[in-house]
Write a structure and sequence with these properties.
By secondary structure, the protein is mainly alpha-helical. About 65% of the residues lie in helices and about 10% in strands. The chain has one domain. The protein contains six helices and three strands. The protein has a three-stranded antiparallel β-sheet with strand order 1-2-3. A hairpin with a 2-residue loop joins β2 and β3. The radius of gyration is 18 Å and the shape is globular.
């Protein structure tokens, strides 16, 4: 008994998500103050900070994610505490996609089973982002 078409797409989506995290880890690196992709430093620019003088909820997210993928959890939490949560959510969701691909015919459709989990992961990451942003509004 092979995978259904939906199961195959679901499983490949999980594999692609994990592969993109591995690719990001392989091609990019970060420090608390910079991001390097393929050996070149990228400018760290926040339009919110330029326009309004205060950081946005996503400020530092790229650096935080890359620091997390590189194993520097302390640095990641200092830059943006939501980064490690985002990485964890992406890994967990990828695993769920891969496992859901093996769902038996006649079970609840994969999308309906995974939607609450994806929503929960998104809410957790968004809440952490907003809490850290609200706590830092006075430190523009």
């Amino acid at each position: 008994m092979g995978l259904s078409r939906e199961g195959l797409k679901t499983g490949l989506g999980g594999v692609a998500l994990l592969a993109s995290l591995a690719l990001a880890r392989g091609l990019a690196a970060a420090s608390p103050s910079s991001v390097h992709v393929a050996g070149r430093e990228l400018p760290v620019v926040c339009p919110s900070r330029l326009l309004f003088g205060s950081s946005c909820p996503g400020c530092g997210m790229t650096r935080s994610v890359l620091l997390t993928l590189g194993g520097d959890l302390r640095g990641a939490l200092e830059v943006n505490p939501a980064g490690p949560f985002l990485v964890a959510a992406l890994i967990l969701f990828s695993v769920q996609l891969i496992l859901a691909a093996r769902a038996a015919e006649g079970e609840t459709p994969v999308k309906r089973r995974l939607l609450p989990w994806a929503s929960a992961y998104g809410v957790v990451v968004a809440c952490v982002m907003l809490i850290q942003w609200a706590g830092g509004l006075g430190r523009a």
